[in-house]
Amino acid sequence: MRYPLHAPGSDGWAAAIRTARAELAADGCTVLRGFIRPEQVDTLRTEGVALAPHAYYTVENVNAYNIPLDTDLPDGHPGRIVLRRGNAFVARDLIPRDALIHRLYTDPRFQRFVADCFGLAELHEYTDPLAGLCLNVVAPGMSHPWHFDTNEFTVSMLTQEPQSGGVFEYCPNIRSRDAEHLEDVRAVLDGDGAQLIRSLELRPGDLQLFQGRFSLHRVAPVGGTVQRHSAIFAYSDSTGVIGTAERTRQLFGRVLPDHLAADAVRGDTLLD
């Protein structure tokens, strides 16, 4: 067994952790191929297909930082570049607790394994009642444009692959906790930063660990007639992380009292 979640500290566990840490250190990303057993991949897909109609569908103008488009930014700032977002999200409160992705997300053994991969003493479920766990749906002709994640440690799993397109593209560590590196970000958004971009082919059941807070990334336009579905497991190394009301409305079309009552908790001063 390549990923023995039932045996923390075993030789197989340690080997998987070593590989994941090495790839994260080198690239800000690692993919654990075939994390879901083959006999469960169809369940993963079927549950995602059943959930997809509950996604909040909207096409809107955004920027890579998911901050208001009228934010006062200097000329030339990449946050002034308008992108078209057409992906949709099924929020956590619409995902049944017995769904495979929900059971995996809340499993302490899975959380311990992911924490060890990231080299963290502990890992916390995202407090946000909508964004903690969600299904990302990208329909044919749509894309999830360039953006940064709110949480530092992004964990995701493709549950249905499209017929064509929908490739995951990213710019490893294009910014840091202390520096935005605006020129590099702008180069990518302007189409002049091809040398900064890497592409990643994913298959259903692959587990992707990614430092999305610091790596600009997108899902390229989907082709064919089949939607691209991926589960997003949102964790943080700190407690109490809740998305801003602005970003929550963008993604889910609604906000809850938790979003209105508190500012988002962040471990840095980067744009969101």
Question: How does this model look, in words?
Answer:
The chain has about 270 residues and is of the alpha+beta class. It has a single domain, classed as Sandwich (Jelly Rolls). Helix content is about 25%, strand content about 20%. The chain is built from 7 helices and 15 strands. The strands form 4 sheets. Strands 1, 4, 5, 6, 8, 12 and 15 form a 7-stranded antiparallel β-sheet that branches. Helix 1 crosses helix 4. It is globular.
Secondary structure elements and pairings:
Layout: H1 11-27, E1 29-32, H2 38-51, E2 60-62, E3 83-85, E4 88-90, H3 100-106, H4 108-118, E5 124-125, E6 133-138, E7 144-147, E8 153-160, E9 164-165, E10 168-171, H5 182-190, E11 198-200, E12 207-210, E13 216-219, E14 222-223, E15 228-236, H6 245-252, H7 257-261
Antiparallel strand pairs: 1-12, 2-3, 4-6, 5-15, 6-15, 7-13, 8-12, 8-15, 9-14, 10-11, 10-13
Helix pairs in contact: 1-4
Mean pLDDT: 92
Using the 3D structure, state the CATH architecture. Sandwich
Structural class: alpha+beta
* Tally of separate helices: 7
Distance separating the two termini: 39 Å
Q: Share of helix among residues?
A: 25-40%
**Coarse morphology:** globular
Order of helices and strands: HEHEEEHHEEEEEEHEEEEEHH
Give the domain tally.
1
